[in-house]
């Protein structure tokens, strides 16, 4: 329980990678602030489960992080509940796939606001407390797309490259305050979102489940294995520990070799 007495806020943590971070950090005794959208009863069940495993507190903030005033409200609520944010994980993100000339302007604006600008706002609001306490961990779920591009994902690739640069700057500004800032950059991660695409793609392309996974989804991932949410969360947990105090300003790939190509 090495995170007892610490508070972690994880954006976009009602499902997928974010929920795995919340479970991993709760397992080490941290107070948890979860955020994101979804079914109220399911979210309440997860929140209760986090409290049960941590023996500490867990609250849910359903704020829309594409809006700066909502981010300010969430941060104020979290700080009021637990006295400060020690671990900030910027994870909320959405995707849209279209050629640049057809890319809907509202989708561009949403992806930049949520996947990039929200991390600026949460970070600027968390840093004064971290600096005062001389301890902090800032972790971004970036992506292989923070290091390389794919066609038709212009907004996502732009936001993820942006967050990688932002993280380096934050690392330099906080280096003498006991604060670290790092990106974790997954390749394809096995989430319910990915799993749901398989039957439709099998039908649409006349492929087997194995062909969809290997030739479509995992085409760019040399291991031909999905990364798991638990593997991503284990890296975040390591970054929160004392052994990781010297790791800052990095971008850690967990992508089955994707960006080595
Ligand atoms: P997910 O859809 O399961 O999770 C996204 C979370 O963000 C959910 O909790 C959702 O409710 C929340 N969210 C969406 N819009 C929001 C908003 N406006 N305000 C607040 N919360 C909002 O997806 P995931 O795969 O777990 O993705 C999490 C992060 O990991 C994203 O930043 C994504 O870009 C990144 N990522 C995912 C993969 C992958 O293969 N799944 C790979 C690399 C990076």
Bound molecules: nicotinamide-adenine-dinucleotide
**Rg (C-alpha, Å):** 18 Å
The end-to-end span amounts to 39 Å
Uncertain segments are: none
Order of helices and strands: EHEHEHEHEHEEHHEHE
Would you tell me the overall average pLDDT? 96
CATH superfamily: NAD(P)-binding Rossmann-like Domain
What's the number of helices? Answer: 8
**How would you sum up the global shape?**
globular
Number of domains: 1
CATH topology: Rossmann fold
Biggest sheet layout: 7 strands, parallel
Second rung of CATH, namely the architecture: 3-Layer(aba) Sandwich
CATH class: Alpha Beta
Q: Which class best fits the helix and strand makeup? A: alpha/beta
Helix content: 40-55%
Provide an overview of this structure:
With 261 residues, the chain is an alpha/beta fold. The protein has one domain: NAD(P)-binding Rossmann-like Domain (Rossmann fold, 3-Layer(aba) Sandwich). The chain has eight helices and nine strands. The strands form two sheets. A seven-stranded parallel sheet has the order 3-2-1-4-5-6-9, with helices on both faces. It has a two-stranded parallel ribbon with strand order 7-8. Helix 1 runs parallel beside helix 2 and helix 1 crosses helix 8. The longest helix is centred in the middle third of the chain and has 29 residues. 44% of the residues are buried. The site of nicotinamide-adenine-dinucleotide has 27 residues, from helix 1 and helix 4.
């Amino acid at each position: 329980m090495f995170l007892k007495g610490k508070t972690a806020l994880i954006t976009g943590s009602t499902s997928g990678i974010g929920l795995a971070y919340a479970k991993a950090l709760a397992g080490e005794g941290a107070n948890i602030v979860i955020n994101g959208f979804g079914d109220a009863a399911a979210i309440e069940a997860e929140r209760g489960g986090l409290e049960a495993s941590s023996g500490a507190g867990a609250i849910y903030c359903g704020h829309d992080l594409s809006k700066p005033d909502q981010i300010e409200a969430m941060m104020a609520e979290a700080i009021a509940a637990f006295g400060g944010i020690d671990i900030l994980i910027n994870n909320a993100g959405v995707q849209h796939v279209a050629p640049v000339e057809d890319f809907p302007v509202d989708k561009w604006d949403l992806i930049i606001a949520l996947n990039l600008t929200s991390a600026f706002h949460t970070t600027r609001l968390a840093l004064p407390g971290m600096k005062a306490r001389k301890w902090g961990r800032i972790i971004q779920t970036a992506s292989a797309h923070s290091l390389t591009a794919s066609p038709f994902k212009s907004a996502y690739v732009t936001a993820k490259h942006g967050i990688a640069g932002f993280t380096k700057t934050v690392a330099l500004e906080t280096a003498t305050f006991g604060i670290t800032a790092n990106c974790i950059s997954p390749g394809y991660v096995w989430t319910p979102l990915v799993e749901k695409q398989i039957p439709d793609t099998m039908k649409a392309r006349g492929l087997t489940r194995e062909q969809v996974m290997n030739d479509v989804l995992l085409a760019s991932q040399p291991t031909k294995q999905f990364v798991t949410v638990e593997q991503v969360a284990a890296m975040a947990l390591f970054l929160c520990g004392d052994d990781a105090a010297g790791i800052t300003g990095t971008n850690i790939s967990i992508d089955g070799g994707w960006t080595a190509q």
